[in-house]
Amino acid sequence: MARIYTKTGDDGTTALIGGRRIDKDAPRIKAYGTVDELNAALGVVRGCGPDPETERIILEIQNQLFTLGANLALPEGTSRSDWGVPALTDGEVASLESLIDNLEGGLEPLRKFILPGGGRAAAALHLARTVARRAERHCVSLSRTEKVDPQIIRYLNRLSDLLFSLARRENFLSGIKESHPTFGR
After folding, report:
1. Which residues 6+ apart lie within 8 Å of 155 measured at CB?
2. Cα–Cα distance for residue pair 185/164, rounded to 1 Å
3. Is the CB of residue 131 less than 8 Å from the CB of residue 34?
4. Whole-angstrom distance, CA of residue 64 vs CA of residue 132
5. What pLDDT was estimated at residue 184?
6. From CA 164, how far away is CA 104, in angstroms rounded?
7. Residue 88 DSSP SS3
C-alpha cells in the first residue's frame, strides 16, 4: 500500500488532475477545497443522525459534490472525457429545485428570518449551508479569471437553499421551534 503522504506538497503546491502543479492558495484550489470542506460538513450532518430521508438526500449530494470537485480540479482546457469526469447537468440542478419545493410545501411559510440552530442535525445543516455559500463565492471568483462551468455555480446556489430547507425540516420533525432575530420587533 502506498503511503498517504507524498511530500510533493511541501513546497506549497498541489497537483490538479493530470499532474500540473499550482499554488495551494490558488483560486481553483480554494474553490475545490471549499467544496471538499462542504462534503466533510455534510458527513458531520450524517453523523448527527438526521431523518432517514435527509440522510439519503445528503449521501446523494455528497456523491454529486465529489463530481463537482473533480470538475474544478481539471485544469482549464482539459477535457472531462480524457479523465472520465462527468459534467453536472441541468437535471441535477432541477432535482435540487424539486426537493426544495417538496420540503418547503410541508413547512410553515417563511415570514421572518430565522436564526441558525435547533437540533444537532439542523444546526450542522445550517453550518453546511454557509460552507456551500462560501464555495459558491470562491467559484464565482475563479470564474472571473478562468472558465468555470456555470452549472457548478447554479448547483451550489441551489444546494445552499436545499440545506436551509433541510435544516428547517429537521427541526420541524424534531418538534423544535424556529428562533427569530430580536431586531425589528
Report:
1. 64, 68, 88, 92, 93, 96
2. 23
3. yes
4. 13
5. 57
6. 10
7. coil
pLDDT digits (tens, 9 = 90+) for 30-44: 999 999 999 999 999
Give the strand pairing for 21-23 and 13-15.
Answer: antiparallel
84: nearest Cα among 67, 102, 63, 104? 67
Whether the predicted pLDDT of 121 surpasses 70: yes
CATH of 23-74+116-175, one of 3.40.50.2300, 1.10.10.60, 3.30.1330.40, 1.20.1200.10: 1.20.1200.10
In terms of pLDDT, which residue wins out, 1 or 29?
29
Alpha carbon separation from 71 to 24, 135, 158 (Å, rounded): 17, 14, 18
Given a cut of 80, whether residue 161 has pLDDT beyond it is: yes
